[in-house]
Amino acid sequence: MQSRRVLLAALMAAVLLAGIPAAVAGPAYPAKAITLIVPYAPGGSTDVLARAVSQVATRHLTVPLLVVNRPGGGAIPGRLDVVRAQPDGYTLLFGYGSGEDLFVPHQRQIPYDVLTDLVPVCRISIHSVVLVVAANHPAQNLTEFVRWAKGREQNTAAVSTAGGVVDVTLRLFAQNAGFKVTPVPGTGGADAITRLVGGHADFGGGHPSEVLPHIKAGRLRPLGVALERRDPAVNAPTFKEMGFDVVTPGSVKGVAVPKGTPSDVILYLAAAFKEISVDPEFVKIMKDIGQPIMYQGPEEYKVWFKQAFEQAGRLVAQFK
Amino acid sequence: MASFEGLLQGFGIALSPVNLLFAFLGALLGTAIGVLPGLGPAATIALLLPVSYKIGSPVTAIIMMAGVFYGAMYGGSTTSILLNIPGEAASVVTCLDGHQMARKGRAGPALGIAAIGSFIAGTIAVVALTLVAPPVAEFALKFGPPEYFALTVLGLLLATYLSGRAPLKSLIMATLGLLLGLVGLDPVAGVPRFDFGNVNLQGGIDFVTLAMGLFGIGEILLSLEQGVIGTIVTTTIRDVFPRMTDFVRTRRAIVRGSVIGFVVGLLPGGGAVIASLVSYAAERRASPHPEEFGQGAIEGVAGPESANNAAATSSFIPLLTLGIPGNASTAMIFAALMIQGVTPGPFLLREHADVFWGVAASMYIGNAMLLLLNLPLVGVWAQLLRVPYAYLAPIIAVITLAGVYTVNNTAFDIWLMLVIGVVGYLLRKLEFDPGPLLLAFVLGPIMERSLRQSLLMSAGSPAIFVTRPIAALLLIAAAIFVAGNLLAGRRRRA
Question: Distance between CA A172 and CA A251 in Å, rounded?
Answer without folding.
Answer: 15
